[in-house]
Amino acid sequence: MKARFLIKAFAATFIFSAILFLCAGKINYCGGWIFLTTNTISAFMNFWWIRNDPELMRERAKIGEGAKSWDKRILILSGITYLLCLFVAGLDSGRYHWSPGLHWSIYLSGILITLAGQVLFFQARKENRYFSSVVRIQSDRGHAVCDTGVYKIVRHPGYSGMMISLIGLPLITGSLWSGIPLAIAMVLLFLRTYLEDETLKSELAGYTEYAQRTKQRLIPKVW
Question: Which residues of the chain have pLDDT under 50?
Answer without folding.
Answer: none
